[in-house]
Fold:
Amino acid sequence: MKNILVTGGLGFIGSHTVVELQASGYRVIVVDDLSNSTVDVLENIEKISGIKPDFHQLDLRNKSDVQQLFATTSIDGIIHFAAFKAVGESVHKPLEYYENNIGSLVYILQEMVKHNIKNFIFSSSCTVYGQAETLPITELEKTKPALSPYGNTKQVGEEIIIDACNAHQLNAISLRYFNPIGAHDSIHIGELPLGVPQNLIPYITQTAIGLRDELSIFGNDYDTKDGTAVRDYIHVVDLAKAHIAALTRLVNKENTENYEYYNVGTGTGLSVLEIVESFERVTEQKLNYTIVERRKGDVTAAFADNTLVTSKLKWQPEKSLDDALRSAWEWQKKNT
Ligand code: UFG
Structure:
């Protein structure tokens, strides 16, 4: 049985990926500093899979702790989620973002080299494309200078991994996520935003349940079908499964390059208003919303061409938008 280290394994995408790893027969070791998650997630993972993963509460900025972890743990592959991820916050706290997102990445790669661990999966983001020239976005699209320190940590992170792969014969895959949403079918795990949600779906569900007065829709003067911005919303369980496909490709030595990167999205672009309408239909809730100014840094439209990931990783999205919205709503009701 292969041992997989999952950093940030109690977070939104991390926890869903742990469950899928367990279902695929991997043994999981979770590292998380609990800065944006709670330890209860471990038990909730166990409720789904029947297996409680090994857990280390550890801050990956602490180099000696990282060294100690690798010195005492047998690891065959790593899926690295742990990172700060609030775009707006990163503008005000850039050095914390660089220290956390870049520092921890470097320490992990150093330990991989030291312990001859070859397989690495990185959480990247479609934010590396900025406003793409061509839609849907393929992996041939040029990356753009990042609009935020957060976005820059994903770009620089990918570059660091490329250099490490070349120098040290590591094998890595970056997954460039579009917009992950939804919750596990069991409703035992989901997204737990701290404070006021920055992302669309948790803001919608919190508004529908009465925690927020109304949703602010950021701009209706974009050059899109209805004027609101367009994104590619992917069910978090599908996204989690893409990590298993990527890891399995490396473990089975099926990769053709030592560094590969894939867009992970559904291929469908939907506007904010379309999401609101779907949410209202699926949940039979009426949502209060108002149109406000555009949000700084938002692109007009981003959705994936997922041809590469579906062909090379033999993965494809299985769940619908309705599944995602329904599960997000069930999750909100359970947690309120
Ligand atoms: N939106 C609103 N009102 C809200 C929240 C969001 O109208 O209260 C709109 C946004 O303007 C955007 C869409 O809903 O058009 C989606 O916004 P999210 O904040 O949910 O997602 P983003 O596309 O802005 O950002 C996400 C991740 C980032 C990642 C980025 C890559 O949150 O981490 O995708 O594009 F970098």
